[in-house]
Amino acid sequence: MATQHSRSAARLMMAPAVVLLLGWMLVPLIMTLYFSFKKYLPLRGGDLGWVGFDNYVRFVTSSAFWPSVLATLAIVGGVLVITVVFGVLLAILLNQPMWGQGIVRILVIAPFFVMPTVSALVWKNMFMDPVNGLFAHLWKFFGAQPVEWLSQASLQSIVMIVSWQWLPFATLILLTAIQSLDSEQLEAAEMDGASPLKRFAYITLPHLSRAITVVVLIQTIFLLAIFAEIFVTTQGSFGTRTLTYLIYQRVLESQNVGLGSAGGVYAIILANIVAIFLMRIVGKNLDA
Amino acid sequence: MGRITLDKVSKRFGDVEVIPPLDLTIEDGEFTVFVGPSGCGKSTLLRLIAGLEDTTSGQIRIDSQDATHVPPAKRGLAMVFQSYALYPHMSVRKNIAFPMKMAGVPEDEQKRRIEAAANALNLTDYLDRRPGQLSGGQRQRVAIGRAIVREPSAFLFDEPLSNLDAALRVGMRLEISELHERLKTTMIYVTHDQVEAMTMADKIVVLQAGVIEQVGSPLELYHEPRNKFVAGFIGSPKMNFIEGAEAGKHGAHTIGIRPEHIAVSADEGPWSGAVSVSEHLGSDTFFHVHDTGLAETITVRADGEVGFRHGDRIRLTPRAELIHKFDENGLRIA
């Protein structure tokens, strides 16, 4: 594979894929940038010319902007904490030898295969419905007033639904990491006088740090963009309007493509800020 | 301060009895080696003593205290694992400090013991490195350092040298022996390598299928093996076994003669055969002799200068007083 001839042949064969990928990324990005500098109202006159940074200013100064950033961060942060903490616990539990291990593991992973729209609808109608939901029945059984989940605890409900979807992913990655832990290390720690809790803190958790990093990074990328769960449950009301949802509303409900595009550019910036912070905090775990 | 007694200790995994009830006493300060082929239960026996496995029945006493159900950390024993089991995310210093940190030893005492161990094991320059940045021999020394600082009443070694290359193994063997001379602490050492057993041990315990075949000093085992298994296991190259008429002459079912107790010559000796392979080590030469009519192959050790080649007919003379005699059950006939 190292002759000049084979190298140029390799480049030639990779070229279509590279060009396609570049196009796929560049065309939407450039179009977003292009529209963000225009006043463009599809149902109210179409392209109304260049407006400079007007859209950017309007998007940030809108009263909905900062709450949406905070809602986005709250959902991402909440889901990350829940999935990592419970993912570690579940992984430890599933790593214990038990009867029916194979089936239990498949069942644990199952929620990940349910489409976001479907799982959000199931949660909304079967669990969280204040009249017929399972939770409502449970509350009534104990004589309590049923909670109107999606209006009284809307953000928490969304976090719960999304966590349920992502917990299997975290568990799966962490389980494979736990399985690669050398049992002699745990035995050595046991002989060194470490209690089970200390063995977890000093041996298991450091061993998992890299897997936790991977879980946090991958989940963050996907969680910044969650949409379906909000669309089918609260429609962005009761403080669940994330940045993604705000952009959707600007473009499709207000029919203002220019304003939405400016929001899209802000979303890219936010994602990069979060990514830089994450890399700073946890990225060093990926070295060596 | 380190007398370990096993009283009818046995171990089963499900239906499989890996160790039938056995008795064994390890005296204080003794270097005891458990040796046997792989799967003979020697590691399991060590883990029973360490407390990493529960005994199925019987009693383990450490300094006459019943320790059968005492958790591993409370037994006052330190173990060096085959894989070293160092904590990869901690520096060498933290690895060595870990057992003391768990035991709540004061900081300055910790520091003093780490310095002492690092000095003794030539680790002073490596204290701030991680295990991943060390060579095999250095990792081994860190594992030993982690054991030393606990000041245990006995050390347990589980095949500690099997991951090292041949040259390092000889070096570490000496270091561990020196360590024992210096500390005078009880050491139990598991290995499948009879050379390690012979060179290091005060007392060797030969195991087969969980059963103790013989306990004794290296030379006792070499000169007076209790049965054919021990005779074949101890000594390198292996003892030659001869059955049939030749054994009958000595009034035994089987006779055994070690390769180093057979003299070789071109034309003198009661046995004759053809050299099939000759291995020249410089100091010694090993001949594998066929066509003797006694056994399939007879191995002979000769001086390094003896120069027979493949196919040469040679004559062999066993030293009559060093022939071992065994009955049909493989037991030694005195």
From TrEMBL, chain A:
GO cellular component, one term: plasma membrane
Key word Membrane present: yes
InterPro entries, sorted: ABC_transporter_permease, MetI-like, MetI-like_sf
Protein's membrane topology: Multi-pass membrane protein
Gene3D superfamilies: MetI-like
Bilayer-crossing regions: 12-37, 65-94, 106-123, 208-232, 263-282
Compartments where located: Cell membrane
Domain of life: Bacteria
SUPFAM superfamilies: MetI-like
Keywords, alphabetical: Cell membrane, Membrane, Transmembrane, Transmembrane helix, Transport
Main localization category: membrane
Domain ABC transmembrane type-1 as annotated: residue spans: 69-278
GO biological process terms, semicolon-separated: transmembrane transport
Family membership noted in the UniProt record: Belongs to the binding-protein-dependent transport system permease family.
Protein name (Swiss-Prot/TrEMBL): Sugar ABC transporter permease
From TrEMBL, chain B:
InterPro entries: AAA+_ATPase, ABC_transporter-like_ATP-bd, ABC_transporter-like_CS, ABC_transpr_MalK-like, ABC_transpr_MalK/UgpC-like, Mo/tungstate-bd_C_term_dom, NA-bd_OB-fold, P-loop_NTPase
GO cellular component assignments: ATP-binding cassette (ABC) transporter complex, substrate-binding subunit-containing; maltose transport complex
Domain of life: Bacteria
An example Gene Ontology molecular-function term: ABC-type maltose transporter activity
CDD domains in the record: ABC_MalK_N
Keywords annotated in UniProt: ATP-binding, Nucleotide-binding, Transport
Family statement drawn from the similarity comment of this UniProt entry: Belongs to the ABC transporter superfamily.
Protein name: Sugar ABC transporter ATP-binding protein
Organism encoding this protein: Ruegeria marisrubri
